[in-house]
Automatic annotation (TrEMBL):
Organism: Cyclospora cayetanensis
One Pfam family of this chain: CPW_WPC
Domain (CPW-WPC): residue spans on this chain: 60-104
Taxonomic path: Eukaryota, Sar, Alveolata, Apicomplexa, Conoidasida
Protein name in UniProt: Uncharacterized protein LOC113146929
Length: 106
């Protein structure tokens, strides 16, 4: 039990070290704000052209239990230890059909 707590503490420490600094967050938010102001000032057609970027030119393979680099857990969930996207890093992809897996990628 003590070993598990130590492992969890190490994971939290690793995660904390990867958090951005306040200065980095402020800089990023200022960048986003300036981008939004720029996009708002553009004609709508140009914004649509920028927003509709094509996806990959290859067909993705959704047959694997977990996405590449994710770890399959004993309970059947997939853990994206290094995942930094907008969704949770723990999912049960076994219940996802191909359409739902494709939606998760977006």
């Amino acid at each position: 039990m003590g070993e598990t707590i130590t492992d969890i503490a190490k994971e939290f420490a690793l995660g904390f070290d990867e958090l951005p600094t306040t200065e980095e967050i402020v800089s990023y938010l200022c960048h986003l704000l300036s981008m939004n102001i720029y996009l708002i000032s553009m004609p709508l057609k140009q914004v649509q052209e920028i927003s509709n970027c094509p996806g990959p030119s290859y067909a993705r393979d959704y047959t694997a239990t977990c996405p590449e680099s994710w770890i399959l857990q004993a309970n059947g969930t997939c853990w994206g230890r290094g995942y930094r996207g907008p969704c949770e890093s723990m999912h049960y992809f076994g219940a996802f059909d191909q359409a739902r897996k494709e939606k998760f990628v977006r």
